[in-house]
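Our preliminary data section would be incomplete without showing what the modeling component actually yields. Below, a chain of 413 amino acids is followed by its predicted structure, encoded as tokens that our downstream tools consume directly.
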Amino acid sequence: MQEVTQAKPQINRSQLIKSLGVGILLLLILAFAMFSGDSDNAIFWLVGIAFGIIVQRSRFCFTAAFRDLFLLGQTRMIKGVLIGLAVCTVGFAMVMSNVYPNPGFGSPPTAANVLPVGLSTLIAGTLFGVGMVLAGGCVSGSLSRMGEGYLASWVAIGGVMIGLFFLNSTWNWWWDNVISFEPSIWLPGEISYTGSVTLTLVVLAFILYLAVLWERHKNMGFVMPEIKRKPDPAPTGSLDEIFTYLKFPFKREWSPIAGGIALGLLNLLLFIRFHPLGVVGEISRWSTTLTSNVGLPEFVLRGMEGLGACALVFTEGTWLTHGLFLNVGIIIGALASAVFSGEFKIRIPRSPVRYAQSLIGGGVMGYGAGLGLGCTLGAFFSAVPSLAVNGWVYALGLTIGAFIGVKIIKRIP
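Predicted structure:
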């Protein structure tokens, strides 16, 4: 009887070469960051890489969290955001209580994202919410999608830079007439750390409860189909086995809850040593530097010095800032994750309308991010755990803006 031999599964050599190339790139830039004159650059580089990987593997998306409530009636992503906020809140409170044990005396922690709150915050969040739905991603989400090969996200970030330029040109009006009169409200200074954390966690739990009710109302009788996955082939050699181990985190898509927890812990780790996550201040610096290089006026922004969060900070003489390594790290981290998982490809929009939509959405989003001194990451995901009221008002604006944005995109062919 003729013997039948089963073909051995072979490793994808092309993907292995791409993965090794990206891995070498990550290590080279890490080495450059370590010896760039500021060793802290390496920390921000690693945090950016981790952020990009987490977002890419979990498909974690702040835009989807707000948009899908109204567009699809789904709460899968908002659950991850809420869990991540809960993790951040407990961790941030522990850090702040050690540094500022008596919150009733003095000002809020300078590293926390405690900002003026009022009409400007609500307008900023609303504009950002509209813009992120039109652009198809928030600022941090667009950075990660740039690494995954989405051309529309590159256009969206260009729009963000344009929006930030126009915000900077009108900032002094906002400061003189609105923001300078708005208070900064830090909850521990009003009701203690214990009361602030308890209140925040109760509100997060209540929002989660409302979201589940909303999803059940919108999807009566609908059950998500179970996805059957094929078992992975067994490794056939030493190289295959090593590559299999290295690819383990990239075999399966992570859940949004896992992504939310991971981002919450990452935010906490950065806050312990430096400050919470935020990407807008650096992009605003890019915008200002590029526009001044082409002859446009360089603005003197009043009141920025004491605001913190994602306020624009000018750095003389170098582009090698913490923010640069963080933002570029997010792009490269998402690229590495997409390559390692075999999911990277250049994604070109089918319709030219998508480019215009991304550019306009990015512009509106950039203006809102500049006005609110942060995006969904800095003004929301880092502000709420800072136990600052401005984070909640910004979130209200995001919800209103996402609702308006969904109404708009439904009318776009």
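The radius of gyration is 22 Å. Residues 300 and 407 are 37 Å apart (CA to CA). Preliminary results of this kind motivate Aim 1 of the renewal.
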